[in-house]
Write a structure and sequence with these properties.
Blueprint (H helix, E strand, L loop, with lengths): L12 H15 L14 E4 L2 E5 L4 E5 L16 H17 L6 H14 L4 H17 L13 E4 L5 H10 L4 E4 L4 H4 L5 H6 L15 E8 L5 E9 H11 L7 H9 L9 E5 L3 H15 L14 H8 L2
Parallel strand pairs: 4-5
Antiparallel strand pairs: 1-2, 2-3, 6-7, 6-8
Length: about 325
């Protein structure tokens, strides 16, 4: 509370202060009150120092606490120390009148220098405050209502795409190629069990693995590239059965015309994918890289040249 008196008459200021405290204690039993009196022209009120002159009242930010500022050589983060400097200097500007604002600012600078804050830090904070004062109050930016577009992060490419997208008000975020799930194998044991093969194969050509892009070598020197979300041995069994039927696919047609045979035991796993789209894209990329003269299979999806170059950059 700030109590103003019209006059004290013949009483001393100390006696008037005691009488006021008596009224406060009587009206608020159980609470403890302290008070400060005006000393000369000055009166300390909370963190403000009031100066009473003949024509006006000046106020200056003057924290009453005697506790020193956190030393700059402490083990705390630089961000915390910068926030302390910003809080002190900003309070000296916003909580002081224009008559004594400079004195309040210089007093806070002196406190910060005494705590070991380098002059370069105080200069940077002062420049930031100056820009804030000059810019005035700005309206908060509205958050985009549309969902952001997600693209994989690629050095020197993703940020340039985001700059172009910002010109057309298209929000964009990046996805990391390495997920946290890949850093914690034990957490993914449950999901890995779901992807494991539970079939007891009669003819097991290679080790069981699920969700793969595979390459089958042929006796003529060419290869067959395909993909499957099931166990690779199940897919090998289907290829072997197709060679004995009259309704086979590309592998059957080539082996019939070339009089060659696939070597299932030497099948290679060249990629993996959890979803069908991932496997089909990787399959099409592998077929394109193998070349039409070396690979006898056809891709499930068509990839443009730019898409192939994009995958090559991974």
């Amino acid at each position: 509370y700030l109590v103003f008196l019209r006059g004290v008459g013949k009483l001393s200021l100390q006696k008037v202060g005691d009488d006021v405290m008596t009224v406060f204690k009587r009206c608020s039993p159980g609470l403890k009150f302290t008070y400060e009196l005006q000393v000369g022209q000055y009166l300390q009120f909370l963190d403000l120092r009031l100066q009473f002159t003949g024509q006006h009242v000046c106020w200056r930010y003057n924290p009453r606490t005697k506790k020193e500022i956190l030393p700059y050589d402490s083990a705390h983060s630089k961000l915390l120390k910068q926030n302390i400097a910003t809080s002190c200097l900003q309070a000296s500007l916003y909580r002081s009148c224009h008559h004594v604002m400079l004195d309040s600012y210089e007093a806070q600078v002196k406190r910060l220098l005494g705590a070991g804050f380098p002059l370069s830090v105080l200069l940077g904070v002062s420049q930031t405050l100056l820009k804030k004062v000059k810019s005035g109050s700005q309206e908060p930016k509205e958050k985009p209502k549309q969902r952001p577009q997600v693209i994989p992060y690629i050095h020197k490419i993703s940020h340039n795409l985001k700059k172009v997208a910002n010109r057309f008000n298209v929000p964009m975020v990046f996805s990391a190629p390495q997920k946290l799930a890949q850093l914690c194998p034990r957490v993914n044991q449950a999901s890995s069990r779901k992807m494991s093969c539970t079939v007891k194969h009669v003819n097991k050509f290679v080790n069981c693995i699920v969700g793969v892009i595979y390459k089958i070598p042929l006796s003529c020197g060419r290869v067959y590239i395909g993909q499957s979300g099931r166990c690779v041995n199940e897919r090998m069994r289907e290829h072997a059965n197709s060679l004995r039927s009259m309704t086979g696919g590309h592998l059957y047609v080539h082996c019939r015309d070339c009089q060659c045979h696939p070597i299932f035991q030497d099948t290679l796993i060249i990629g993996r994918g959890r979803t069908k789209v991932q496997r089909e894209v990787l399959e099409a990329h592998a077929i394109e890289k193998a070349g039409a003269g070396h690979c006898v299979s056809q891709p499930s999806v068509y990839l443009h040249k730019k898409e192939i170059d994009f995958i090559d950059s991974w």
